[in-house]
Amino acid sequence: MAKNTLVTLMTDFGTSDPYVAAIKGTILRLCPRAQIVDLCHEVPAHNVPMAAFILAHSAPHFPADTLHVIVVDPTVGTERRILAARIGGQFYLFPDNGVISRVVGMLPLQSLHIVRNTSFLPSPPSATFHGRDVFAPVAAQILNGLDISRLGPQPDKYTLLEVAAPVIGDDAIVGQVVYIDRFDNIVSNISAQVVSGHKVENLRVFCAGKEIGPIVRTYAAAPRHRTLALINSMGLVEVAVNQGRAAHFLGAALGDEVRITWK
Amino acid sequence: MAKNTLVTLMTDFGTSDPYVAAIKGTILRLCPRAQIVDLCHEVPAHNVPMAAFILAHSAPHFPADTLHVIVVDPTVGTERRILAARIGGQFYLFPDNGVISRVVGMLPLQSLHIVRNTSFLPSPPSATFHGRDVFAPVAAQILNGLDISRLGPQPDKYTLLEVAAPVIGDDAIVGQVVYIDRFDNIVSNISAQVVSGHKVENLRVFCAGKEIGPIVRTYAAAPRHRTLALINSMGLVEVAVNQGRAAHFLGAALGDEVRITWK
Amino acid sequence: MAKNTLVTLMTDFGTSDPYVAAIKGTILRLCPRAQIVDLCHEVPAHNVPMAAFILAHSAPHFPADTLHVIVVDPTVGTERRILAARIGGQFYLFPDNGVISRVVGMLPLQSLHIVRNTSFLPSPPSATFHGRDVFAPVAAQILNGLDISRLGPQPDKYTLLEVAAPVIGDDAIVGQVVYIDRFDNIVSNISAQVVSGHKVENLRVFCAGKEIGPIVRTYAAAPRHRTLALINSMGLVEVAVNQGRAAHFLGAALGDEVRITWK
């Protein structure tokens, strides 16, 4: 009962429809002490890989025992399962579609259960809005102290996305664009560790076929409106324009090549 | 004093201006224990019918005694009245412009008062921002335990919008598009009850002049990127495209006809 | 320990990326009792003057002792300083780039300190995301009761933006457009005080080279879809269209002239 009652919500519902509020209302109705924080509701519709990325770079910063509820669920109402997990000291409730892939790649999976015991649902769920009718009531029960092991059995396996890793060659590392943020900064899948064997000043970064230059420390290290590359706050090589829009300027898109060479 | 201090906000203010924060700050200044939840701030500007729809499909999910504050108020500063109501065990504070229409169509109206006693406003209200200067302070007083009957007298009448009902004929039900959501799902005003006299497998749905097909159970019941119709989580007939954008695909807009026929 | 734990966040991060949630998670991890309210995350990217305006018209409405954290910080990672201030009975934590200019123009600056003591940061900060790595932990310590004087010394000076004042002539007041809101209302830098020496009915307002007409009291005082001018809820002369979009209709942009003449 002394448990954390902090719960975050991540959906692809946006904030202009009644859906997110319906989920929040349901959680609060069933667990009045719940403290709800929005993780993100602007996940592109049905985009599970993007949700996996955003989740992995926000959820781990929350306190121990925080419950993260993810409703990016294009196959809602089918036989796809809902899973509850304990990962890295926090709880996650999510559809079994791979959205958890990047979190479990970073943090230890401590337990995993299929949500099968739905005896505590307040009413039979609709077929199209499990966020309100299943995820929210199950989340409320977890916040009320229910042990996730009581939700159902452990699965034999669960869905993981294929996450592209950079190719490390003798004279180049070849990765790709995995995320473009609101500032149009271009995030690659090349981590700081991968380039750590090289002197940073010897590295040259290329993105979308154009040479960006060496890796610098801050956005402001480049002249205003000029391209630069840096190790970003996620520990990944990022291509940016100081106070400008790199993806637009370079014409870069998700999946484009990011290449690093050295002298 | 042991009352609920949960308050939701619904506005057409968006989230890029200082307005919503000014309302929240004022509520918290006057009722520090207030627990504020955003219902929706992306109501299209001045669009009372849309606000009425979003409200009816989110507010009722909240706990008993929740206070819902609605500031979609194109005639702010005129003689339009502000009303406080108890409906279905919750409280609503709203301009008398019909925004409450769909909620009172679904839940019992238990009491209704004109907000006339403004003796507890912290300062004379501006003429243009009653959200901050009237709604927020009145909301804080209600959260602090003020009985809404003390706000003012009961009105003789109040504004209700004309809500279009589907026309039920001998060989067809003819409704219309009343909402299009972020996913471009098309929501009609035809409820599950209206079609409940028919075997679902005998029904054929048409929208924007095109045949959609039979009613299925889930989005994923149709092949990816194909149209479908279903009974949605609001209990309404909805036309969608599995992982696609139905309104865009069909060229459908608010007010367009949705027709259901049967064999 | 009995201090307020209310903290607001203002950023130019938008709400589609993991950044805002990473800040919130970090604050809550280090101060579980924190009560976080979004001030605004839709500040245009890198736009410090706009952030200064939004801040000044929302933050002061919050309770005494509220902590406002501002992360609109285009020169993150450079030698720009982070400052903590007590202003008008509230706390502000912000980059020394002038974002505080309009607040200190309105309210008394009570104390000001450079954030130099970073001994309590949980880990060495990244060079690119001080919102998560410096602002959030420092905010948590302030919420936990740390006196801001312990963060570092008082600065000799700090950055203030040049804020354009209207030019008051013998037969005209000439100001400019300083803000355009979601409704496309056009806000000028001409305050109610500046025009208070004149009878309102004698004033004529011009914007973007077009005559708007006299100053009225409410949006609804003009016919629907017609231009009007009024004193808005910020105490500033505003040009609007009743239930329409003034900036679009008039082709007005930030910096355009707003002129008031009189008979």
Q: Topology of this protein?
A:
Three copies of one chain form a homotrimer.
Chain A: E1 6-11, H1 19-30, E2 35-40, H2 48-56, E3 67-71, E4 82-87, E5 90-95, H3 101-106, E6 109-114, H4 130-143, E7 167-168, E8 172-180, E9 186-191, H5 192-195, E10 203-207, E11 210-213, E12 215-216, E13 227-231, E14 236-241, H6 246-250, E15 257-262
Parallel strand pairs in A: 1-2, 1-3, 3-5, 12-13
Antiparallel strand pairs in A: 4-5, 4-6, 7-8, 8-9, 8-15, 9-14, 10-11, 10-15, 13-14
Helix pairs in contact in A: 1-4
List keywords for this structure.
263 residues; alpha+beta; six-stranded mixed beta sheet
Structure description:
Three copies of one chain form a homotrimer. The first copy, chain A, is an alpha+beta fold. Helix content of chain A is 19%, strand content 30%. In chain A, the strands form two sheets. In chain A, strands 7, 8, 9, 10, 11, 12, 13, 14 and 15 form a nine-stranded mixed beta sheet that branches. Chain A has a six-stranded mixed beta sheet with strand order 2-1-3-5-4-6, with helices on both faces. In chain A, β13 (227-231) and β14 form a beta hairpin. In chain A, α1 (19-30) packs parallel to α4. Chain A is elongated and about 65 Å long. Chain A starts with 5 loop residues before the first strand and ends with a strand. The mean pLDDT of chain A is 94. Chains A and B meet through α1 of A and β2 and α2 of B.
